[in-house]
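Supplementary notes for students who missed Thursday's class. We covered one full example, reproduced here. Read the sequence, then the structure, then the short commentary at the end.
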Amino acid sequence: MGALIGSLIVLGGSVFLLSAGLGVLRMPDSYNRIQAGTKASTLGTILVLIGLAVMHPDWALKLVMLIFFVMITNPVSSHALARAAHTFGIAKTDLTVVDQLGEEPESTQEAVK
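Structure (token representation):
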């Protein structure tokens, strides 16, 4: 029974990893690709590791340590990549509405004056 539940959890994680790959292919600019890839791949990886922990309880401590490592490193690395891309002036899509690192929108600047 544990193998079936573990396999279903691994399958769910695989679906999230597939959606991360599709998000990277379909998003219009680097910033959206980073976001799509990071969120879905983090959840997918965690689900795969949880499924493995269910199937192999002896590995549970090592897998929990891996989950902790993934939860810390994936968001931090994607944030660093996005900041570096913004610093180097990588173009955003025309659909981008808010750029919190860039200049303030003109409507905000007029309201301050």
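Commentary. Residues 84 and 90 are 9 Å apart (CA to CA). Residues 2-112 form one domain. If anything here is unclear, bring it to office hours.
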